[in-house]
Amino acid sequence: MPNKKSAERRVRIAERNRLYNKYWTSRCKTAVKRVLEAVESGNADEAAKTFNAAQSVIDKAVVKGVMHRNTAARRKELMSRRMKAMNA
User: Fold this and answer.
1) Which CATH superfamily is domain 5-87 in?
2) pLDDT digits (tens, 9 = 90+) for 40-70
3) What is the C-alpha to C-alpha distance for residues 62 and 59, in angstroms, rounded to an integer?
4) What's the rounded Cα separation, in Å, for the pair 21 and 66?
5) pLDDT tens digit string along 2-32?
6) d(Cα 57, Cα 25) in Å, to the nearest integer?
7) d(CA 70, CA 79)
8) Would you say 31 and 54 are in contact if contact means Cβ atoms under 8 Å apart?
9) Structural contact between residues 54 and 79, judged by C-beta atoms closer than 8 angstroms
């Protein structure tokens, strides 16, 4: 338990930020999973729609500082490779 008022404030802020980051990371993971599931099922229309949505969510997480831009690029590239393999 913190002894100083500023330390108590930092604890509150850290918890708020933890929940915010958890929300966005969870949202990104779910979006990527949806794309990969659509690719596995072979549904090209659904895969393309979820791919665009997932890219948007990942880019928003980068802008908000939740995810590093290189991590986002890697995740988008993974989805892109799976989409190309499905179409080929």
Assistant:
1) Ribosomal protein S20 (1.20.58.110)
2) 999 999 999 999 999 999 999 999 999 999 9
3) 5
4) 6
5) 999 999 999 999 999 999 999 999 999 999 9
6) 10
7) 14
8) yes
9) yes
Q: How many residues does the chain have?
A: 88
Answer for the pair 83, 51: CB distance below 8 angstroms, yes or no. yes
Structure tokens given for 85: 């393999």
Give a three-class secondary structure readout of the chain: CCCCHHHHHHHHHHHHHHHHHHHHHHHHHHHHHHHHHHHHHCCHHHHHHHHHHHHHHHHHHHHCCCCCHHHHHHHHHHHHHHHHHHHC
Tokens 């190309």 found at: 84
Rounded to whole angstroms, how far apart are CA atoms 24 and 51?
17
Confirm if 2 and 8 have CB atoms less than 8 A apart: yes
Q: What is the value of pTM for the model shown?
A: 0.89
CB atoms within 10 A of CB 59: 15
